[in-house]
Design a protein that fits this description.
Blueprint (H helix, E strand, L loop, with lengths): L1 E6 L6 H17 L6 E6 L2 H11 L4 E11 L2 H9 L5 E6 L7 H6 L2 E4 L7 H19 L8
Parallel strand pairs: 1-2, 1-4, 3-4, 3-5
Helix pairs in contact: 1-5, 3-5
Amino acid sequence: MDIEILYHDKFKFEQEEFLFKMYLNRITKISNNLISKIKAEKISDKSLIKKIKLKKGTEAIILLDEKGEKVTTEKFKHLLFGTSFSKILFVLGGTDGFSEEIINLSNKQISLSKMTLTHSFAAIILLEQIYRSVTIKINHPYHRA
């Protein structure tokens, strides 16, 4: 499984960027080949539409949006490992959300919380949930639900 994360806004505080990178590293180290590649990239709206159009049909395109489906950790794990796609593209929207065009190109929209989160917190929570899903899958003690 390959995972790519695209986001619009920059991290405003170095502590947020530190946590983001920490979870990226944790996922890489523990994934046991469940996740062969994970990368994150800051992207503009214009570039995002081009990239999504190129990947449509070959990758699961999942938008993180406060109006999306509320998912539990268990549902999120199934979203990662229960798909027929070998690549997943997660997209975090900007302040104004997503255009109709981007929504129509996506496979799914999910919400990480009923509350509105800052862009950087959403990115960190997404990575933590990816990490947690991997630990559940490999029976690592990190997740003790």
